[in-house]
Amino acid sequence: MAAKRLGQLPLKRIMVRGVNWIGDAVMTTPALATLRSHYPDAEIVMVANPLVAELFAAHPSVDRVMVFDKKRRHQGTSGFWQMASELRKQRFDAAVLLQNAIEAALLSVLALIPRRAGYTTDGRRLLLNHPISVSDADKRLHHTDYYLQLLSRLGIEGGDRKLKLACTSEELDWAKEVLAEENVIAINPGAAYGSAKRWLPERFAAVGDELAKSYDARIVLTGGPGEVEIGNDIAATMACNPLNMVGKTSVRQMMALLASSRLLVTNDSGPMHVASAFDIPIVAVFGSTDHTTTCPASEKVVIVRKETDCAPCLLRQCPIDHRCMTAIQADDVLQAAYQLLDDQP
């Protein structure tokens, strides 16, 4: 008799090992909703790094979050064993590994989780008892479909492709107070993966000034701690005196700012996917990365890119002249923004 698929088993406590980047984590939310729909009465616990853990702190598909902090509490071999011990005490029935690394499978084994499911990436097939093979075609799927397909092959069905995040009413009240008005356009000029993904700061500044003037809007700059210098340079260049929040917010505060915005102009980045999960219209500038696999899973998006002989290269830093980004002019981005803004009621 064939072994039962994971989705045929009566699971009561499920550990989900989350992915490590905010944008990728947002793209797993349809898979999480599917898991919740299939197991409505189970306790679903997300295990994630500190930043991704913040993202899921108030998510309807997750009951609890456990932080796996490899830079502090769980650093090194001793910290890894400590995390495994913490998980062992939870007595999980199953682990669903959205993260592709062998580390996730090894952690599940050491935590004595009896059912371990995930893609057979990174040489971890023997550590999984619900292994799902991954082909080259699978790797070319949009990331949202890649994670949904994993669950489908495990016999876990019932969700849809819609991204979803949630802010608390207190977080939205904070954003309203900080922004001080409702007509807000957000600009996210950074990208955590590397400089190859970043459009030119002076062109972001030009776009922001023009949109502020044309729509009588307040411009807010968003980004992480590693992008403070970019934010400062753009703010100093702009004539409209933007609200510069780059490096000044937590992940959840950034979520609330984007959820309160009318439009986001951004590189391919985590905040791009966050805005998509809140159904915010997006102008997304793509160069080195592949828009077919990582574009926002939304109908309210215009992708701005130029065909070049080297893109998408998927590199962190451009080894030549950054032509995929320098070819994109401010007017290209403005035309996309006008299209989205003028379609709004």
From TrEMBL:
It catalyses: an L-alpha-D-Hep-(1->5)-[alpha-Kdo-(2->4)]-alpha-Kdo-(2->6)-lipid A + ADP-L-glycero-beta-D-manno-heptose = an L-alpha-D-Hep-(1->3)-L-alpha-D-Hep-(1->5)-[alpha-Kdo-(2->4)]-alpha-Kdo-(2->6)-lipid A + ADP + H(+). InterPro entries: Glyco_trans_9 (IPR002201), LPS_LOS_Heptosyltrfase (IPR051199), RfaF (IPR011910). Keywords: Glycosyltransferase, Transferase. The keyword Iron does not apply. GO terms for molecular function: ADP-heptose-lipopolysaccharide heptosyltransferase activity. One of its GO terms (cellular component) is cytosol. Its EC number is 2.4.99.24. GO terms for biological process: lipopolysaccharide core region biosynthetic process. Belongs to the glycosyltransferase 9 family. Gene3D superfamilies: Glycogen Phosphorylase B (3.40.50.2000). It holds the Pfam family Glyco_transf_9. It is an enzyme of class 2 (transferase). This is lipopolysaccharide heptosyltransferase II.
